[in-house]
From TrEMBL:
One GO BP annotation of this record: L-ascorbic acid metabolic process
Entry protein name: L-ribulose-5-phosphate 3-epimerase
Position of the signal peptide: none
UniProt KW keywords: Isomerase
Length: 282
């Protein structure tokens, strides 16, 4: 059972082998010392299909959560790279909004509090003033759906210029003005863009509902092993302590079905906890 007096550290689903069933995944999360799992709904059809499960298909995951006492507190909804809600093609953005609605319903069913949405208006096509406008309109509609479900949508700063900084997220938060639209910063992405960590996190301090922790190098945003990149995690935790953020963290990494993923999960957690201690974050 998750200890609410402890700062929760979760793990990104893709850190685990895709060959595992839900019981195996959540058991490994527990054995490796994690408090929760962040489920991923991405462009892979098998993961997207989860949003269309019937009641009987949901039983396996619910049973695994109950038996392992590992909750799923957040969802990484990265499938919008394929079906962006800012697309200039009406059929694409309508599919994106259908996915948004299904993701919110899925969150209700499994007790997920936060849906992390990527800060992309489009991904595989050119960003234009029109796609930016459509994105904002559909983000407002999505936030209203989330409000009805009491689920928080949280934008992550990404690897493209459209929303590459947490301060850009604030433009949407200030315009939409809803407690159901918040920030989900990624310290790895902040570092990969060589941004000022203190300025960026300070600008969003009242709106952070979750954080991704990953290592990166300049302009390389994924698949850098912890300890091999440029992210100053100790300094990040000092800043987070200063702005009084004590919410959940998700360690973001990718197993790619390699054999050493359990070892890397344990190492990453221990490294992060050590950096927290050095920063006097606890």
């Amino acid at each position: 059972m998750m200890n609410i007096n402890k700062i929760p550290i979760g793990i990104y689903e893709k850190a685990l082998s895709s060959k595992l069933d839900w019981m195996e995944k959540l058991t490994i999360c527990s054995v490796c010392g994690y408090d929760f799992l962040e489920i991923c709904i991405d462009e892979c059809e098998d993961r997207l299909e989860r949003l269309y499960w019937d009641k009987s298909q949901k039983i396996e995951l619910k049973d695994a959560m109950k038996r392992t006492e590992i909750p799923i507190l957040s969802m990484c909804l990265s499938v919008h790279r394929k079906y962006p809600i800012g697309s200039g093609l009406i059929e694409i953005r309508e599919k994106g909004m259908e996915i948004m609605e299904k993701a919110i319903q899925f969150s209700i069913d499994f007790g997920i509090r936060v849906i992390q949405i990527a800060g992309y208006d489009v991904y595989y096509s050119e960003s234009t003033e029109e796609t930016k406008k459509i994105f904002k309109e559909n983000l407002f509609k999505a936030t209203e759906l989330a409000r009805k479900a009491n689920v928080v949508l949280a934008i992550e700063n990404m690897d493209t210029i459209f929303i590459n900084t947490p301060t850009k997220i604030m433009d949407y938060i200030e315009e939409i003005k809803s407690p159901f639209l918040q920030c989900y910063p990624d310290v790895g992405n902040i570092s990969a863009w060589h941004l000022n960590m203190e300025e960026e996190l300070g600008a969003i301090q009242k709106h952070i509902v979750g954080m991704h922790l990953k290592d990166t190098i300049e302009q390389v945003f994924r698949r850098i092993d912890f300890g091999k990149g440029i992210v100053d995690f100790e300094e990040a935790f000092k800043i987070l302590n200063k702005i009084s953020y004590k919410g959940p963290f998700v360690i973001e990494m990718w197993s790619d079905d390699n054999d050493d993923y359990v070892e890397k999960m344990i190492y990453a957690r221990r490294m992060i906890e050590e950096k927290m201690k050095l920063a006097c974050y606890y």
